[in-house]
């Protein structure tokens, strides 16, 4: 939904403006701004837990755009990721693609650290099963 994406983009920039004083210069500004955008989108998804469906943006984020696979393997990976349950998919993307720690994921998604670890284990197992069958 393009309109919703525009609203979330605007919300991310508003958050950036409000939190500008908390920018620590430990990383590039673009990385910090990107993280705010991801967090804003995740908070929106969190509000729609059961309504979340995989879309091209989620799959592109999961694939990272730089996966060293051939096109067929990338397609298989995207399909496998799209079949994951929403919470497991979110934890997988945040941990394995974005490099978040379980503590950060737990805080962002409102779950216990152990649940984050369990969801990651579940997501990897489901991916393995799906990709081995492909």
TrEMBL record:
GO biological process: one example: DNA-templated transcription initiation
CDD domains, alphabetized: Sigma70_r4
Stretches assigned to the RNA polymerase sigma-70 region domain: 2-49
Alphabetized Pfam families for the sequence: Sigma70_r2, Sigma70_r4_2
Keywords: Sigma factor, Transcription, Transcription regulation
RNA polymerase sigma factor 70 region 4 type domain ranges (all copies): 76-125
Family: Belongs to the sigma-70 factor family. ECF subfamily.
Protein's recorded name: RNA polymerase sigma factor 70 region 4 type 2 domain-containing protein
């Amino acid at each position: 939904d393009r309109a919703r994406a525009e609203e979330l983009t605007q919300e991310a920039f508003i958050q950036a403006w409000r939190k500008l004083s908390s920018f620590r210069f430990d990383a590039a500004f673009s990385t910090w701004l990107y993280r705010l955008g991801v967090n804003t989108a995740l908070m929106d998804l969190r509000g729609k837990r059961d309504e979340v469906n995989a879309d091209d943006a989620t799959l592109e984020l999961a694939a990272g755009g730089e996966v060293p696979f051939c096109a067929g393997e990338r397609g298989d990976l995207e399909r496998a990721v799209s079949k994951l349950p929403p919470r497991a998919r979110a934890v997988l993307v945040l941990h394995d693609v974005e490099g978040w720690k379980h503590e950060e994921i737990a805080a962002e998604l409102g779950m216990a650290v152990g649940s984050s670890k369990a969801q990651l284990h579940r997501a990897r197992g489901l991916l393995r099963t799906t990709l081995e069958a492909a």
